[in-house]
Amino acid sequence: PPAHSHSDWIGPPDKHSNLRPVIFYVPPEESALERRLREARQEAQASNQRFWARHNRAFRQEKEEFIYSRLKAKGLEMKDESGQKATLNAEEMADFYKDFLSKNLKKHLQYNRDWYKRNFRITFLMGQVALVRALRWLRWRKKKVEQ
Hints:
Elements: E1 9-10, E2 22-23, H1 32-73, H2 90-103, H3 105-146
Antiparallel strand pairs: 1-2
Helix pairs in contact: 1-2, 1-3
């Protein structure tokens, strides 16, 4: 982002996780509480990035293995006579998706628990930052009226 920017910047989707990375704006006079909030948001982003990159890599690999094994069982190759990549029908792929989700249920449940914890913490910190800013604004306004 340009040096004069006062906003977070969101990039294009990551090719592994499909998540859009965020470059967080750091104000020049960031308070300790604001820094804790930004760092919590950065940690949440990094954690999500790691989880979804691993998950998507495993998904693609297992999907390819599933397709290969099903095609091989049918006596087919990965490419048909015209050179096109061979595919399975929707019912066969539904079997893969169901199995993949079942095998990864515990990982998804743990991810969701962690996600909720992180977001609760971020929301709590956002509330604290908003309260501090409101009180600072009220003190400034009161001081301005008294002058």
